[in-house]
Amino acid sequence: MEEIKIIDLTPENISEYGVCGYKDANKHLELRKKIEWFGEFYSKGLKIKAVLAPNGGYQGMIEYIPGKYAHRPVDAEGFLFIHCLFVGFKKEFKGKGYATQLLEACIQDAKNNKMLGVGVVCRKGSFMADNSIFLKNGFEIVDSAKPDFELLVLKFDKQTTNPGFKATVDEKSKEYENGLTIMRSAQCPYTEKNVNAIIDSAKKMKLNTRLIDLMDYKSAQNNPCAFGTFCIIYNGNIISHHPISNTRFENIMMKIMK
């Protein structure tokens, strides 16, 4: 196995390494927007640690930020909050303990900065880590949100009050009762892809369509979906809790509009 190293991305070097599999800022609008977003929140304590392999390149990362600025609909001020944790674009890098190393670095960072603990939102499936690695490292499930999101926390003092999902999560979707609403944030670069195609399909279906770019952490925290940085709502109901392809969108709408 190749020797790997873990580095901190900074506004100065993020273009060199890329993020989330995107490497060419000239080619990918997703990466340009992510870099701009990273620069905005870096001064607020945002960190991205990347796993690099000598011949495999970028193979994983952890992204975390003080809970005040978390791009999830949570009340977690005083905690360090994880947005993303994954390792292994290539399967040979999975199961080698690199994700645990990234998580341990985050926990140590929280202790060094006198935080109350570390929090994360989990869900099985795409785009989010499931809860197993966190449970193995002492995290506890302290809250849940529809349909199957969990809020996990590692507290350094057991007497500390638990963070929680905001009261508006789930119910706030009812404010978007008329037509199709797409919400996205540059925090997740995958929220850029396919959106234009989805909007074009919605127009062909003669749907009243609105695109909302979540421009700050408060907007993400007011998202009716626990994912925080993406959501598709149709007539007040969430039909996708994470980025999807246009084909997937069309299949969902065909079932709804039968």
Number of domains: 2
What is the residue-averaged pLDDT? 92
Would you identify the CATH architecture of the largest domain? Answer: 3-Layer(aba) Sandwich
CATH class of the largest domain: Alpha Beta
Q: What's the CATH topology label of the largest domain?
A: Aminopeptidase
Spans of at least 5 consecutive residues with low confidence: none
Radius of gyration: 18 Å
The profile of the biggest β sheet is:
7 strands, mixed
Shape: globular
How many H/I helical runs? 7
Summing up helix and strand content along with how strands pair, one would put the structural category as alpha+beta
Q: Residue share in helices?
A: 10-25%
Explain how this protein is built.
The protein has 258 residues and is of the alpha+beta class. 25% of the residues lie in helices and 28% in strands. It has two domains: 5-165, Aminopeptidase (3-Layer(aba) Sandwich), CATH 3.40.630.30; 171-256, Glutaredoxin (3-Layer(aba) Sandwich), CATH 3.40.30. The chain contains seven helices and 13 strands. Strands 1-2-3-5-6-8-7 form a seven-stranded mixed beta sheet, with helices on one face. The model has no long low-confidence stretch (mean pLDDT 92).
